[in-house]
From TrEMBL:
Identification of the protein by name: D-cysteine desulfhydrase
Entry-linked InterPro entries: ACCD_DCysDesulf (IPR027278), TrpB-like_PALP (IPR001926), TrpB-like_PALP_sf (IPR036052)
Molecular function via GO: D-cysteine desulfhydrase activity
PANTHER family recorded: 1-AMINOCYCLOPROPANE-1-CARBOXYLATE DEAMINASE-RELATED
Cofactor(s) this protein requires: pyridoxal 5'-phosphate
GO aspect biological process, one term: alpha-amino acid metabolic process
Species lineage: Bacteria, Bacillati, Bacillota, Clostridia, Lachnospirales
Sites bearing N6-(pyridoxal phosphate)lysine, chain numbering: K46
UniProt entry keywords in alphabetical sequence: Pyridoxal phosphate
N-terminal signal peptide: none
């Protein structure tokens, strides 16, 4: 894409599921693009970005990938998986407390052989910690390649520009709904769907320090320059639903859990409590509010994140609601 090569690690295009039970009940044509069903490391959206990032890393002679995120970062887990497949080292730096147990993604990170560095969120700049970690490994002879939060830079977003090309082959029209975290997924799709009849809504998952539309414009302009795009945007071009934080980033929420139960019990598809469950909860609300119309074709991008249900804070909240169906026979 745009002269940037990639190292293929996926079988593309990803599958499409038609959600027949929910389509009937909700009165929409409901499709899901299964970016959760991608090869490495239990799957997820970060792999499309990593196809481009790993090529760039190897091109630059790197022997080690370093990335950042929360302790339960899906992106860190998939970076660890891609590093393993390429026989590279990997370190994940998280500004986070130890969750009390080696759980979910952190457990998988270590199973993939990645090093995890946790630093108390005490105001120390993240990049200072990254530098410390990189120095340590470089003094041992490694060549480190840094991947930003969520893989969301100009290179990572190429993976979702490519996903947009798939969607245009698969659907003539429709409304694409996607969770919006570090924004690379949304922005890649936005650029790729620009010339199509597919509309795109990003569901904001986490608070932004600056105005999210300003951030989106700046990110777009960086991409525009790097990919040599020939169109401009204003803030109004971005459709971002900002009302669905449900208590904050990765905070357990009853509304989100109810959405997860609904999807699992209607379609046998598991959503995660941080991103996709929140996105489905938002979609249900948008339907109720008439922001999504009856008979619309909805294309929900399932971005993965399954290990999130095993995060201690989420697991406890699930347990409180679900133990009533567990009978211990004497
Ligand atoms: C990272 C992530 C997202 C958000 O993607 P961004 O490109 O960071 O906006 C959505 N869903 C899951 C499961 C993720 O891990």
């Amino acid at each position: 894409m745009f002269g940037y090569p990639k190292q293929s690690c996926l079988h593309l295009p990803t599958p499409i599921s038609y959600l027949s039970n929910l389509s009937d009940r909700l009165g929409i044509e409901f499709y899901m693009k299964r970016d959760d069903l991608t090869e490495f490391g239990v799957g997820g959206n970060k792999l499309r970005k990593l196809e481009y990032l790993i090529y760039d890393a190897k091109e630059k002679g790197a022997t080690m990938l370093i990335t950042v995120g929360g302790a339960q970062t899906n992106h860190g887990r998939l970076t660890a998986a891609v590093a393993a497949k390429n026989q590279m080292k990997c370190a994940i730096v998280a500004m986070d407390d130890y969750p009390g147990i080696l759980s979910s993604n952190m457990l998988l990170d270590r199973i993939f052989g990645a090093y995890v560095f946790l630093h108390k969120p005490d105001g120390t700049p993240l990049m200072d910690v990254v530098e410390r970690v990189a120095d340590k490994f470089e003094s041992q002879g490694e060549r480190c390649y840094f991947i930003p939060m969520g893989g969301s830079n100009e290179i990572g977003a190429l993976g979702y520009y490519e996903c947009a090309q798939e969607l245009k082959q698969e659907f003539k029209s429709g409304h694409v709904i996607v969770p919006l975290g570090s924004m690379g997924t949304y922005m890649g799709l936005f650029c790729g769907l620009h010339d199509s009849d597919l509309t795109l809504t990003g569901i904001q998952i986490m608070p932004y320090e600056e105005d999210i539309y300003t951030y989106a414009c700046n990110y777009f302009n960086k991409i525009k320059e790097s990919w040599h795009l020939d169109f401009d945007v204003t803030e109004e071009d971005f459709d971002i639903a900002t009302d669905y934080l449900y208590g904050g980033y990765n905070v357990p929420s009853e509304t989100v859990r109810n959405a997860i139960y609904d999807m699992a019990r209607s379609e046998a598809i598991v959503l995660d409590p941080c991103y996709t469950g929140k996105t489905y909860a938002a979609l249900l609300d948008m339907l109720n509010e008439g922001k999504i119309k009856k008979d619309e074709t909805i294309i929900f991008i399932h971005t993965g994140g399954l290990p999130g249900v095993y995060t201690p804070s989420h697991q406890k909240a699930f347990e409180a609601e679900l133990m009533d169906g567990v009978t211990i026979l004497g």
